[in-house]
Design brief:
The protein is of the alpha/beta class. Among the domains are: 85 residues, Gyrase A, domain 2, CATH 3.30.1360; 78 residues, no CATH class; 115 residues, Isoleucyl-tRNA Synthetase, Domain 1. The chain is 48% helix and 13% strand. The chain has 20 helices and 15 strands. Strands 7-6-5-11-12 form a 5-stranded parallel beta sheet, with helices on both faces. Strands 1-2-4-3 form a 4-stranded antiparallel beta sheet. A 3-stranded antiparallel beta sheet has the order 8-9-10, with no helix packed on it. α6 links the parallel β5 and β6. α6 crosses α18. It is globular, with a radius of gyration of 29 Å.
Length: 541
């Protein structure tokens, strides 16, 4: 039960009995700042009195007189018309037994019977995952975990552009490195891939296929290129597994293009939406959401990147998903309406596809931006960052800021073991509760939690009650940062509870048993919340 949402419904019901109809989404409920003013307050009477031809205090009185008292102990009217609600203690305290009984399932939503495909990362398999990929991975996977926890059926998908110039450049770079290893005096062109892993892959190929490589032979080159792409992709998979990200489906552009599929889609599904201009073929995306029509075939007869992407999105939808979510870098802003328009041409809603744009990351150390890895001389990779500060810190820091916001990742802060470090602050709250419960494992806990009366206990109870609602809202908005904010607030309430209340008092076991029950409930919720962000909940720190 979420008290704020329940109060909204109760207020709407009380006013409806008076012939006054309000949308519950227009009613605002806030926690009261002091216990004297109750547990929750609303400005609903001040906000809507004039609409219904009455004054605020009169409307507030109608709410106070008519509201269902099952949840509410009493209602007071304050000032010009604020409505203050005092909630029955047993209604709040009952959340403790609910949490303990549900355990890892507390906060999970009912099955929504909706299938969602989330495509994210989708890096070309030509090198290490960089910081942009890392942030997309953290946000994309956290969105998936949110959806799953809220009751959706989620598929994680990784799309590999293996038909473009990047893969050919990978092959050419490997070709040069192999020829160098075989003793040929040849320089690597500037536009090649210069990372050390290309040399490692070339050596591995020679070890596995001694004497097989034939310079200038197309078949030999294609075999080398395929080997290199597979090695790079396997490395990406290993790094993502380290980052606690695992994909259900890996799709390849070459498969999308196979058997003339893209041409069939263009001719059979989009023929009436195309026209020729200057030898190129354009799609009439301005008939829908786009600001200009988009070329799908160049004047030389080759496809632009858009046409295979359209075919790929239609393949995804053919699997029966209700929604597609693409998590992309911020430079894809212009991509959104052209793809939505292409899907609308096939009768899909404009909301069938949603795109999360992820802004750039800067690494900061000692107040200075870090651009290059000391180890490789190239950009800092996902694996290096995880090795530097730990997977928990990387995932939490990336998810804690809205995807639409730029992020300065403070390496010093990520390593700091203090309350200034948000992931340490949250994990320490969990570890503290684990320590208390271990120390008092001989004391039977009271799941009814009837002896909780202190303000810090009440604040923690109310915070725990919010968790299911936060999951629903954060999932609906695809906003992992909302959950991170909740985690920080929960950690603050746990630390306050720990500081202000004596959790283990063997001279007062009635109060102690209730407080231990609250500690156990808070521990469960903190673990569940961190888990949705892919962050661990240590029992010791």
């Amino acid at each position: 039960m979420n008290i704020e949402e329940t109060l909204k419904l109760k207020i709407a019901e009380s006013l409806k009995s008076e012939g006054i109809v309000l949308d519950v989404n227009d009613i605002i409920i806030e926690k009261s700042k002091t216990p004297e003013h109750g547990d929750y307050a609303s400005n609903v009477a001040l906000k809507f009195a004039s609409r219904f031809g009455t004054n605020p205090r009169e409307l507030a009185t109608k709410i106070a007189d008519k509201i269902d008292k099952e949840l509410v102990e009493k209602v007071e009217i304050a000032g010009p018309g604020f409505v203050n609600f005092f909630i029955k203690k047993n209604a709040i305290n009952s959340v403790v037994s609910q949490i303990i009984s549900k355990g890892d399932s507390f906060g999970k939503g009912e099955n929504k019977n909706k299938k969602i495909n989330v495509e994210f990362v989708s890096a070309n398999p030509t090198g290490d995952l960089h910081l942009g990929h890392a942030r997309c991975a953290a946000i994309g996977d956290s969105i998936c975990r949110l959806y799953e926890f809220a009751g959706y059926d989620v598929t994680r998908e990784f799309y590999i552009n293996d038909a473009g110039n990047q893969i050919n450049t990978l092959g050419l770079s490997l070709d040069i490195r192999i020829r160098q290893l075989l003793g040929e005096k040849i320089e690597l062109p500037e536009d090649s891939y210069h990372a050390n892993d290309i040399v490692d892959i070339a050596k591995l190929y020679l070890d596995k296929h001694p004497g097989e490589y034939k310079v200038g032979d197309e078949s030999s080159f294609n075999k080398l290129k395929a080997f290199g792409m597979e090695e790079e992709l396997n490395k990406i998979k290993r790094d993502l597994e380290l980052f606690r990200v695992k994909f259900d489906i890996y799709s390849f552009e070459t498969d999308v293009r196979a058997n003339n599929h893209v041409q069939d889609v263009l001719e059979n599904k989009y023929g009436k939406y195309t026209y020729k201009q200057d030898g190129a073929i354009f799609l009439k995306t301005t008939d829908f959401l786009d600001d200009k029509d988009r070329a799908v075939v160049k004047s030389d007869g080759s496809y632009t990147y858009l046409m295979p992407d359209i075919a790929y999105h239609l393949i995804k939808l053919s699997r029966g998903y209700d929604n597609l979510i693409d998590v992309l870098g911020a430079d894809h802003h212009g991509y959104i309406n052209r793809m939505k328009s292409a899907l609308m041409m096939q009768g899909y809603s404009k909301d069938t596809l949603e795109v999360e744009l992820v802004q750039v990351v800067r690494l900061i150390k000692d107040g200075v931006e870090v651009k290059m890895s000391k180890r490789t001389g190239a950009g800092v990779s996902l694996r290096e960052l995880c090795e530097e500060v730990g997977v928990d810190a990387v995932r939490y820091f990336f998810a804690a800021r809205a995807a639409s916001s730029h992020l300065d990742f403070d390496l010093n802060l990520a390593l700091e073991q203090s309350s200034s470090n948000p992931v340490y602050y949250a994990q320490y709250a969990h570890a503290r509760l684990c320590s208390v419960l271990e120390s008092a494992k001989d004391i039977k806990i009271d799941e009814s939690a009837t002896n909780l009366k202190e303000e810090s206990e009440s604040e923690l109870l109310k915070k725990l009650m919010e968790f299911p609602h936060i999951i629903e809202v954060a999932a609906t908005k695809r906003a992992p940062h909302m959950l991170a904010t909740y985690i920080q607030e929960l950690a603050a309430d746990i630390h306050s509870f720990y500081t202000n209340c004596r959790l283990i008092d063997r001279e007062n076991l009635d109060v102690t048993s209730s407080r231990l029950a609250l500690a156990k409930a808070a521990k469960i919720v903190m673990k569940n919340a961190l888990g949705v962000l892919g962050v661990s909940a240590p029992v010791k720190m």
